[in-house]
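User: Can you recover a sequence for this backbone? Please restate the input before giving your answer.

Assistant: Of course. Working from this structure:
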C-alpha cells in the first residue's frame, strides 16, 4: 500500500507525489507567481502528495479563523521526496532574489501559511475522502505515519528599505492529512515495502 501511495501520479487531476513532480515544474508568473506550476497541465497548480511521520503538531486560532486549525511538520519517508523539497525551495524565477530555506529535510511551515481542518482516517485503506471517516484535528499524534496533500507556495518578505531586493520565503500549504498508521509505543512500525538496497528512488 505504501509503495502505491508514494508513487502516486495522476496527470489528469494534476496530482503528483513529491518525488515524481515533473522536472519542468517552476514557480509561476503573474497570478501564479506564488505557486509551483507544471506548464504542461491545463490546471497549472499541482496537488502534491507526501508521506512521512509527524514530528510537530500545532493548533492555532485567530480572530479571522476562530475555529482551531492544524499546523504540522513532517519528516518525509523517502530521500527522493526530501531531495525534491530541497529543489523546490531552491528554485526561483529570474527576479526572485534569494529564498530562505527554513528546513532542508522537513516540510517547512512559514508563519503566513494557514492551518487546515481536513483530517481523515485511512488506517483501513486510503480511498475517496467521501468514503473515509473524518477525524478531529486533536486525534493526530506525533509519530503517526500520514499522507499529506499540499501545494508548494512562496511569499515575499517585507522590505526594510525600498532598495532591498525581493526576498522570498517558500514552504508548503497543507490541505488534507490522512492517517495511514497510528503511532505505537509497543509495536514496531510496519515494513515500508521497499527493497533492502532502496536509495531514495524507484
Amino acid at each position: 500500500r505504501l509503495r502505491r501511495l508514494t508513487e502516486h501520479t495522476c496527470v489528469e487531476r494534476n496530482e503528483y507525489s513529491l518525488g515524481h513532480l515533473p522536472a519542468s515544474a517552476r514557480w509561476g508568473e503573474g497570478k501564479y507567481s506564488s505557486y509551483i506550476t507544471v506548464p504542461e497541465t491545463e490546471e497549472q497548480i499541482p496537488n502534491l502528495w507526501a508521506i512521512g511521520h509527524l514530528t510537530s503538531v500545532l493548533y492555532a486560532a485567530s480572530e479571522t479563523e476562530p475555529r482551531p486549525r492544524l499546523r504540522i511538520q513532517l519528516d518525509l519517508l523517502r530521500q527522493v521526496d526530501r531531495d525534491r523539497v530541497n529543489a523546490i525551495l531552491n528554485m526561483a524565477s529570474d527576479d526572485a532574489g534569494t529564498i530562505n530555506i527554513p528546513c532542508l529535510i522537513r516540510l517547512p511551515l512559514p508563519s503566513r501559511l494557514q492551518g487546515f481542518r481536513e483530517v481523515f482516517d485511512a488506517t483501513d485503506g486510503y480511498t475517496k475522502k467521501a468514503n473515509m471517516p473524518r477525524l478531529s484535528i486533536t486525534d493526530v499524534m506525533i509519530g503517526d505515519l500520514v499522507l499529506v496533500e499540499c501545494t508548494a507556495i512562496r511569499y515575499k518578505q517585507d522590505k526594510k528599505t525600498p532598495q532591498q531586493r525581493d526576498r522570498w520565503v517558500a514552504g508548503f500549504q497543507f490541505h488534507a492529512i490522512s492517517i495511514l498508521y497510528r503511532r505505537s509505543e509497543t509495536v514496531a512500525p510496519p515494513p515500508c515495502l521497499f527493497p533492502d538496497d532502496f536509495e531514495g528512488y524507484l
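That completes the design. DSSP finds two helices and eleven strands in the chain.
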